[in-house]
Amino acid sequence: MCLAIPARIEELFGEGMARVRVGESQTFLNASVMLLPEEPNIGDYVIVHAGFALHTLSPTEAEESLSALRELAQALEDGPPQF
After folding, report:
1. What own/partner pairs with CB < 8 Å and gap ≥ 24 does 29-36 have?
2. CB 27 within 8 A of CB 59
3. Distance from the Cα of residue 72 to its chain's centroid
4. To the nearest whole percent, how much of the chain has pLDDT over 70?
5. Cα-based angle 39, 44, 45 (whole degrees, multiple of 5)
6. CA distances, 55 to each of 64, 72, 83 (Å)
7. What pLDDT was estimated at residue 58?
């Protein structure tokens, strides 16, 4: 299974690269922004998969996706339901 995650652009480098932050964590990644149809800006949210920003999304969409991922992680941490 592949997972693409929302991340916020914190810094733009030359040569089509950006430093992005996942959620409110201290997890930062470097991602290529060369596949985006428009020039990104600091503060934009992007979907990152395998080191590439695939598309831009709104802050609301990013938070909804991050919230769903947090719920999934919590469910996995809690273990399978007891019947």
Report:
1. 31/7, 33/9
2. no
3. 15
4. 94
5. 115
6. 16, 23, 41
7. 94
Q: HEC string of the chain?
A: CCCCEEEEEEEEECCCEEEEECCCCCCEEEEECCCCCCCCCCCCEEEEECCEEEEEECHHHHHHHHHHHHHHHHHHHHCCCCC
Q: What is the pTM of this model?
A: 0.82
| Amino acid at the residue 55 | H
Q: What is the pLDDT of residue 57?
A: 94
Taking a C-beta distance cutoff of 8 angstroms, is the pair 46, 57 a contact?
A: yes
* Confidence class for position 25, pLDDT limits 50, 70, 90: confident
User: Between the CA of residue 73 and those of 50, 51, 67, 68, what are the distances in Å?
Assistant: 20, 21, 10, 9
